[in-house]
Amino acid sequence: MDSAATARGMTVPALIRSCLTLVGPEALTHLPDPGSPEPVDVSHRTVTLKNGGTRRVRVVPKLRVRHATPLDAATVRKAAWVAATIGNDDGAHLITAGELNAVESEMSRCRLRLEQLTAALETLAFRPLRQPIRKPWQATYVLGFTHEWGLDPQVVNSRFRTLAPIFHPDTGLLSSAERMSQLLEARNFLLQHLRS
């Protein structure tokens, strides 16, 4: 924090006040609290008591920031974290409302494109068969081949590995337990058929 303030030519409290003025305490409420100072930041010093004796006391760094509204310690810590990270290469960056609108517009465009691709994939995807796979043409249909001639186990496994992530019931783009089980059944049937 000291280095961030020094780099900007100001004191730590001034840097935090600037951050609070720019961002506002309300905007910091959703951020996680960075927590109390680390044990390495805590120091000890010896103080002289009234009776002439000495005593070693623990000194926890405190940060006092004057602000128009009273601030709790968590808000001050959050503001300090934001002030220290804004502008760093690996930290947070402030963007204008125009830049935010451009990002949101691009995200909307990407969402729409994803919906279009999902709809196209759904149209092109095989329709699950009503009965178990008993013939080679059924297995080739499920795996997207036109016929079984010229196929080898490597080609069948490669096609299965291409289609499985699409239809996987947990993570697939078109998650379908029925399609996934038919893919497995078709692959196993074709591999058995090619061996015989």
What does this structure look like?
Keywords: Plasmid. This is J domain-containing protein. The protein is mainly α and 196 residues long. It has seven helices and two strands, in the order ααββααααα. It has a two-stranded antiparallel ribbon. The N and C termini lie far apart (72 Å).
Q: Please estimate the helix content.
A: 40-55%
The H/E string reads HHEEHHHHH
Structural class: mainly alpha
Described by strand count, sense and barrel closure, the largest sheet is: 2 strands, antiparallel
Number of strand elements? 2
Q: Taking strands numbered 1, 2, ... along the chain, how are they ordered across the largest sheet? A: 1-2
Q: So what's the overall shape?
A: elongated
Question: What is the tally of helical segments?
Answer: 7
Fraction in beta strands: 5-15%
Q: How many angstroms does the end-to-end distance come to? A: 72 Å
Poorly predicted runs:
none
Average pLDDT metric:
84
Keywords: Plasmid
Protein name: J domain-containing protein
